[in-house]
Specification:
Strand content: 15-25%
CATH class of the largest domain: Alpha Beta
Structural class: alpha/beta
Oligomer: single chain
Distance between the termini: 15 Å
CATH architecture of the largest domain: 3-Layer(aba) Sandwich
Length: 247
């Protein structure tokens, strides 16, 4: 059975591992990103909910935010669930819809550039950007399409203690490694640079990227051989693995 390193954050790794087993792969869970919620940001979120008229909608670029909040019992205020949500990536669409929020727009290309190309122009609409410390946007990022942005940092993606050792222990048992974010790629190169440098070579596992941000992180670290999932979700990971190992 082909071993696969599942590097998703601990809170959201089990569903992917279950799919991997169902598809005939052997998952090894080694989270490379730890989601640390920001108490100050959460307080500000609830304070801002007292004046929802200040915002035309909610912008979200981080696919892990809602999972991190759900794992700790934190909730999005109802005042913001009543607003239209603008998604830079479709990866979080189902979670947003499960909250009862209305989708205002979803970019087909999961990137800021794709969002800008695809969305219609709005006149002076202010969006509250719920983000991580790594996904903050410049206030004028969407100015060309008539939006203004207010960033609100709700969590920080950190490198989990001991992740390097855990990856090293599993390394020789896997033939592929799954990356759901660019941060996970950078964290592996930070924790075990020599090990990470073997990815995509004859002596290391094949990296599977969920989308553009993870792919760009791989390329920026010198990884030349990789696969990008055809869709930015767990099913896309399985499809990419099957393309590589079952065809």
């Amino acid at each position: 059975m082909i071993g696969v390193l599942n590097t998703r954050p601990r809170e959201i790794a089990p569903p992917l591992s279950a799919l991997l087993r169902e598809a005939g792969y052997a998952p090894f869970e080694v989270p490379l990103v730890e989601l640390s919620l920001n108490p100050k940001g959460l307080r500000e979120l609830h304070e801002k909910a007292g004046h929802p008229e200040n915002y035309a909608g909610v912008l979200i670029s981080s696919p892990n935010l809602l999972s991190a909040m759900q794992a700790t019992g934190e909730k999005i205020p109802e005042a913001f669930l009543a607003k239209p949500w603008y998604l830079i990536s479709a990866r979080i669409q189902k979670e947003v819809e499960a909250l009862g929020a209305r989708i205002g727009f979803v970019a087909k290309e999961a990137s800021l550039n794709g969002f800008l190309r695809e969305i219609a122009t709005h006149n002076g609409a202010k969006l509250l950007h719920l983000c991580s410390s790594k996904t903050r946007l410049k206030p004028d990022s969407l100015k060309a399409k008539g939006f203004s942005i207010e960033n609100l940092t709700l969590y920080t993606p950190e490198c989990p203690p001991g992740c390097g050792e855990a990856a090293e222990q599993a390394w020789n048992q896997v033939r592929a490694i799954i990356f759901a974010s660019g941060t996970a790629v950078h964290n592996l190169f930070s924790a075990r640079p020599g090990l990470a440098a073997t990815m995509g070579t004859s002596s290391g596992p094949l990296p599977i990227s969920i989308g553009l941000s993870a792919t760009e992180a791989l390329k920026s670290n010198g990884v030349r051989h990789y696969r990008q999932a055809p869709t930015a979700d767990n099913a896309g990971f399985i499809a990419a693995l099957n393309q590589e190992f079952r065809t």
